[in-house]
Write a sequence for this structure.
């Protein structure tokens, strides 16, 4: 006869209740943070895709193997055209969908301090996805090259 006072069924039932309570606690605590979940990963990927499109296709100097060298006159035309027809640019970059619409801001700061800016003003309380790229601007007339930082922000 066993005089330990504990049966196998009681032990298994205790372990089962303990595991169920642990699973409940973990599943409940993840649900607490659901309202605070952000879409910053999604908008950062959009900003990344748009920056690649701008740098490698729209503003590129079209030299093989040098994707980050931009044409200075194309850059000036891009920013002035962007400000002139914002809705066209949103449609061009695929940010105006059936269910979701995103806004865009593109800025470029040259090494001499000149700043080009286009798009909407940044909001105060939104998730903003941002991508920054270091690019080189080449003046077609003089051939001079200067560095710049292109920032693409989507929200």
């Amino acid at each position: 006869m066993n005089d330990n006072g504990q049966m196998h069924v009681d032990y298994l039932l205790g372990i089962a209740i303990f595991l169920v309570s642990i699973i409940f606690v973990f599943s409940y605590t993840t649900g607490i943070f659901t309202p605070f979940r952000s879409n910053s990963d999604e908008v950062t990927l959009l900003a990344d895709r748009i920056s690649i499109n701008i740098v490698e296709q729209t503003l590129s100097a079209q030299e093989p193997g040098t994707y980050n060298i931009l044409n200075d006159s194309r850059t000036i035309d891009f920013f002035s055209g962007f400000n002139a027809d914002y809705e066209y640019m949103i449609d061009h970059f695929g940010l105006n969908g059936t269910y979701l619409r995103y806004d865009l801001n593109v800025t470029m700061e040259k090494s001499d301090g000149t700043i080009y800016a286009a798009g909407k003003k940044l909001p105060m309380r939104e998730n903003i996805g941002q991508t920054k790229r270091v690019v080189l601007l080449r003046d077609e007339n003089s051939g001079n090259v200067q560095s710049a930082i292109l920032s693409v922000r989507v929200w």
Observations:
- The chain has one domain: 39-154.
- The chain has a mean pLDDT of 83.
- The beta strands are 69-71, 104-110, 115-119, 129-138, 145-154.
